[in-house]
Please model this.
Amino acid sequence: MFFVWSCDPGNISSSEHRSRPASTKFLLAPLLSLLSFFFSLHLPHFTFKMAFGKLYGLPDNGRTISVLVAAKHNDLDLELVNTQANSTAEFNSSAEYLKINPTGKIPAFEGANGFTLSEVIAIAVYVTSQNEKTTLLGKTKQDYASILRWLSFANTEVLPKLAAWYRPLMGLDAYNKKTTDEAAKTALKALGAFETHLTANTYLVGERITLADIFAASLLTRPFATVLDKTWREANPATTRWYNTIINQDSFKAVVPSPQFAEEVIKYVAPKKEPKPKAAAPAAAAPAEAPAAEAPKAKHPLEALGKPTLILDDWKRKFSNEDIRTVAMPWFWEHFKADEYSLWKVNYKYNNELKLTFMANNLIGGFQTRLEASRKYLFGAQSVYGENYNCVVYGAFMTRGQEWEPAFTVGPDYEGYEFTKLDPSNEADRKLVEDMWAQDVPVTVNGEVKEWTDGHVFK
Ligand SMILES: N[C@@H](CCC(=O)N[C@@H](CS)C(=O)NCC(=O)O)C(=O)O
Model:
């Protein structure tokens, strides 16, 4: 929804990327603009504000954060539409999203007036410049050009190099020690430019905070949480002092309330996997690299079950297009057949080892990516509940057939999960399925309520 009822200007509302059909949107956009004009007149105790636009991205993604903070700084409402950092994901590769960002990546912007923009630097500058009096773009043409210089440097020279270091350690990309160590060296060299500059200057450009500072600090949130550890921070006091200054600004705290600092560089942990008796596969005896997604060579075992009466794609469409609680779930229970499908609680076995919530969410993303070969037979949702250093990964799936193994053993991660069969005739089990799929209520673990933080739907 574009509309934000707000007594507190500057709200950033968030929603899932389940939008109404394009044709309806087309008709609604001008109507909404008109309404916003009328309602921009403030009533004594109440303001009816319309978001300036939608930002497609993720709350823990540095590029997304940079735009949200710039918007917040200028009291501009943006609606965050949670969109995966995966250009091959279903929504990212849909015609609807590719119109907004032809690369399928995040972030992307869609204005309430229909204007669309991709590329984070362009979005950040556009959003910032909406406030005619903003100080974030500097005072002079030289300031402005210098700001662009830092935006470009951070976005193309620093972030990709750092990402080539922390992503493999986080299990997001294939890990190879030599390559990762080399990426660390290149990243640290690029970061050196910040330390040199900030040793002699308080901010990146001029004497006050600009978009350059907000942008660069946002892009460094994940590096600080994963690889720029205590030792690095001690060796780079100027960058660390500057980073602390920026993340403690109200506008930054409103978007990222508690940025994390790694004590030590995170360690690569190979996926948990018990050795398999089948000795036929390791022909290549490769190093510790995990293939991103394995394509099925042989027929999927569940194909033998034939065509069910509940067509999974029909359900997935309902789930994607309708309100989950009021329309999709009643439809689901009406059409679900316990002899065709089974329902499973799928909880992570090592919840006590989870640290940062965004890493837990990446764990879910990796698990689901490697279930690709079973997409025709599987539906479900998994979420992270709780906070950093106190979170759990819970979920629920429906699979064709009565066993979990055929659908889940197509990827290597299943050994990290506990599968518990649910009974669709049992009230509590039905509620669990609905809560996990709607992703809109907290869970209670050992008497402690943990709020929903993030998650992925496998559809
Ligand atoms: N040049 C783009 C790069 C955007 C980008 O790489 N986004 C990442 C997340 S930070 C992404 O969506 N990656 C998904 C993919 O590569 O599939 C920009 O500056 O906005």
